[in-house]
User: Fold UDP-glucose 6-dehydrogenase from Corallococcus terminator.
Amino acid sequence: MRIAIIGSGYVGLVAGTCFADSGNDVACVDIDERKIRMLQDGQVPIYEPGLEELIRKNVKEKRLTFTTNLAEGVANAQAVFIAVGTPEGESGEADLQYVIAAAQAVGRAIKQYTVVVDKSTVPVGTADKVREAIAKVTSVEFDVVSNPEFLKEGAALDDFFKPDRVVIGADTERARNIMGELYAPFVRTENPILFMDTRSAELTKYAANAMLATRISFMNDVSALCEKVGADVDFVRKGLGADKRIGYPFLFPGVGYGGSCFPKDVKALVTTAREYGLELDLLRAVERTNERQKKLLVNKAVKHYGTLEGKKFGVWGLAFKPKTDDMREAPSIEVIEGLIGKGAQVIAHDPVASHAAKRVFGDRIRYAELPYDALEGVDGLFVVTEWNEFRHPDFARMKSLMKSPVIFDGRNIFQPARMREQGFTYFGIGRR
Assistant:
C-alpha cells in the first residue's frame, strides 16, 4: 500500500518505518528541512532502540523516503497519516493548529479517494474538524479515521509490531477495510483490531493515558502515607499487584510522571470535560499529586542538610524514563531547578539525554560522560531515571568518590538495608 506520514517526529517516524518494514511504500513528510536532510543522510533525530537500524534497512530497500514536499509525498497515497504535534495550549487544551494546517494541505494535494488518518493525540471531535477543513479545499472523495497510537518510548518498535490492540475509529466500511488491511500484519497473534466511531477512538487514547497516570499518582500518595506510618511501599505494592483485578504495571512509586503524553493528555482531558460542564476532580488530584512528587527529593535534601547553599550534587538520569532521550516534562527538570534555585551546584549524567538536557539547562550545570564522573566530591547523589546501568554500581567506588555518602533514590532502585550496610545515608520513596 502507498502511505504518506505527515510529521516526522517520534510517532510519525516510528509508524512510517514500521509500515515500510511490513512491505508498504512510505513517504515521511516534514516541514523541517534540517530534520529531513538528517534522515536522508541516515541520521535519526531521536533516540529509540532499534529505530536507526530499521530506518536504514528500509531506505536501502527503497520502501521508505523522506521529503519536505507534501504534495509529492501525498501523491497517489491510499492512506495519509497526520502525526504532527498537538502542544498544550494556554488553558491546558490541545492546540490543533498544526493538525488543521496539515489537513488543509493534504486536502489540496489528494487526487483520488484517500483515507486521512488522525494519528496525533487529539481531543474528541477533532475528526469532524479535520473532515470539515479538507472538504473546504477539495471535491475529491475521502474518509477521516481516528487511529490513536499507544507507543511506549523505549519500546516503541515492539509496541507497534506486537500491539495489545489497534483502535480504529472509522465511519465507512471502505475506510475500515483499508485500515484493517494495513494493520493485518501486526495482529496475526489474534490481538484485536477494535473498530469504533471516531469520537470513541479519540477519547480512548486520553482515557488510557489518564488511567495510567492515575495509577502512578495513586501509588505516590500511598508512598507518602507509608513514610508517615512507617510502612514500606515495596511490600504494599507487591500486595496490591498480586490482586488480579489490579496487577503490577504502573504501580511503582517515584518522582512523578513526565514525557510528551501523560502530563499533556491529563490536562487536555480535564479541559475537554470542563468545556462540556463537567469537572474531573479525580484527574485534577492526579495532577496535584504529580507536581508534589516532583518536588519530593529536593524537600528531602533540604530536611537532611538544612541548607543546600554551596552544596554540590550528582544526578543520575535526565530523560523522563529509560531508553529515550526525551526531556519533555521530565522530573529531572524540577529536581535540578530546585537544587540550583537553592544555591547548589549540579553535575549530571544520562546515557543518551545529555544533548537534550543542554537545551534545557545550558551551562547552568555540568555534564558527566560516565556515571562515576558525576560523583567526584559531591555532597549527595540524586537518582532520577531508572536506567539499568545504574542498578548494580560499584558501591565502594561510589563511596570513595563522594564527599558525603548520601543517596536520594527517586526510583527505589536500591535496597535500603544494603545501602546501610555499605555505609550510605539513604532516602527512597515510601521506604522506612
Observations:
- The mean pLDDT is 96.
